[in-house]
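Consider what follows.

. . .
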Amino acid sequence: MKQELRNQIDHISSGSAITSDFSSAIAQLDQSVEELRQKEASAYRSETGGNPEHFESQFFEDQLEQSQAYHQKIDYKSLDKIKSNLEQIRNLING
């Protein structure tokens, strides 16, 4: 019994349990973000008439005049950045 407790304490102290829990949480976040990102990508394509590249090639002021499409763009790009940040975190955890 004492040895088992010592092993658990060593496991926790080594950080592997924390790293494992953190990796699991990151994976869950990544999955949720990806689901949202796909929904926002679809909404963004819809708001831009199926051509987000054309929308983004417009002057900023022209994009602002199409406020719904502009807000969809911001939502999508924000989720893209979150996904990228989660990937960087995952890389840091895994070494």
Observations:
- The chain has one domain: 2-94.
- Residues 2-94 form one domain.
- The CA atoms of residues 27 and 37 lie 15 Å apart.
- Helices lie at 2-13, 16-47, 52-57, 60-65, 67-94.
